[in-house]
Amino acid sequence: MKIVVLAGGLSPERNVSLSSGTMIAQALERLGHQVALVDMYFGLEDYDGPVEAYFDVPLSDKWKRIDRQAPDMEAVKAARKWKSPSQFGQGVIALCQLADIVFLALHGTCGEDGRVQAAFDLLGIPYTGAGYLGSGIAMDKDFTKRLIADLDVATPAWSRVDYTEKDVDHLTSVTPVPCVVKPVDSGSSIGVSIARSKKELHAALLDGLRFGGRCVLEQYVAGREIQCALLGDRALPSIEIIPKEGFYDYANKYQPGAAEEICPSPIPPEWEEKVEAAALTVYRALGLSVYARADFIVDEAGTPWFLEINTLPGMTPTSLVPQEAAAAGIGYETLCQTIIEESLRSRT
Fold first, then answer.
1. Which of 16, 312, 335, 336 is the most exposed place for a label (fewest CB within 10 A)?
2. Domain span at 89
3. Residue 172's closest CA among 197, 192, 208?
4. Which residues, 6 or more positions from 338, have their beta carbon under 8 angstroms from its beta carbon?
5. Is 30's pLDDT higher than 50?
């Protein structure tokens, strides 16, 4: 098959996406597919040949490593030669139209929020992962929690706030601590803070202004961090995350050795059943398909508290879904091929 792996884009998670895309593209090439790896935002602006010949461009490892810090979006915009408002770089749509399927390795607001999926639906371009509606809902932490609030899934109490700097003092005074402050539509724990005091809450809210002042203030639940991947319509063995220090933030997620990841999770079978049941309930309630990863905190009584679900989870060297698939006897290359097959099946 001719496959475009679409990565990067205009998102704070672009470096994670490019690393995922490199891994995916190399795996698909080993399987015998003709693969083109392209940064959605920069496109083919540094390529002089015909679009169809881009499938013959050799793959490289230049994007595999992930820096400890998320990229500066203004610097990314300034680096693009083509000064267009389009988030699709030069030649990207034409390249994708030549493919049998586009493997979406995008993360964050550029690609995981349903807009790329909707555009591809209108253009008749097959792609991997969930459709536009489920993707858009899952990207919004507030909408997701509203949809599952009446289901048999526990989720920490929360409030959605849209605020400016003048509101920070009031929000600090009325919000109980400890709590978690997180942007309403970001991923990879970018912008997430655990505030254990009013001082920390005040600082977290000020930091949240970098993301537009659109946050979810969530009850802090103490427990073990357990994540569960879904593939097709089944749950994979869950994985427990134990950061060496702090919590599972951007740096701890993508720097090798920063967190201990144990798969399958060393939890009682009845806890595992609860986690898997909750993950499937959320997955089905949002109308998701192909694959996803649900994140939980499991308290000392064994209750899984649902936090969020990711429709295009990371596929980097340290990502969780490949580890969970491996625990189920599914190697990385087979996982990528399965995602393609499930995606084609769901689009027919």
1. 335
2. 2-127
3. 197
4. 231, 232, 330
5. yes
